[in-house]
Amino acid sequence: MDNQLQGLVKSPRYFTEDGDELMFCAGNMLFQYPLSVLQTKSTFFMDLTHKRGVMLNTGPIPLSLLSANDFTLVLDYVWHECDEPPRWTINEIILLMKSARYLLMPRLGWWGLQRLLDEESPVSAVQRLMLSNSIPILEHQWIDSAVTELVMSTSPLSNLSGDELTGIGPVVIAIIGDARYSILSEQKDLASMRPASHDVSPGVDCTWTHHLEHCYRAWSQTWYLKVGRELLNPQKPLPIHQVVEFVERTDFGPGLRPQCKEMFLNNLLVSGILRFELAISAAATTAVIEYLKGIYMDFDVWDLSRTAEDD
User: Fold this and answer.
1) What are phi and psi of 278, to 5 degrees?
2) Is the pLDDT of residue 82 over 70?
């Protein structure tokens, strides 16, 4: 065993010097921590209890996917779980969640997810999807906010780095790209949308004659020249969900009576076209979650959307 320990250093915090405890190696560091404590937190360590007697004299058990810092953080979490916890940084929480996946500690994964959801400085949309693709995190709120942000963004997906594209994965990138294309198609349709002349009745302060000769014309012309122009802006197109606010503050000229403007806007709302953007984004979120569920055979075991009490 001595040859196996060459070049390794003992953890200054988590090495018990107890010959009856299993020894672990992460990076270049040795750890010896009561297995009776670890087995209550991890299926990985629980399985080792059945082999404990055989493995005591076989040298340190390698934790090949963890660095010394990774495993130290895990033991910090185990040590502080029932006490006042230290202040974890976002990067430390992410490292803990990745380690939890490797060590089969879903409760730690759930704990980390709650901390990330509560953080004042949230993880970026790109990083959320990268984590969802690697840990995985399939909690709806977590993925929906990330997918919605990227679907609604005007920044080209080609601006993402190679590592980001790889981390998110080609299928998820394709889902987001398809959603963006669908929204652009809806924006084009909306930009040229004009209600039939008799679809919108005049307001109480207007007559049919004035309505058809002036209100209808003012609405149609201003819609094309101002609203449609913004919807098709190549640099920063007006999001569909902001159309109502834009119309309300846009001057349609003296020919359009105020109540008629409200009638035209209400006709637009009733048509349902202003909800297409959010519906497309929601469908993209569902598609991403279903795809990620399909690539993880143990999804039911590693479902971080459950509460801690479910474990």
Assistant:
1) -65, -35
2) no
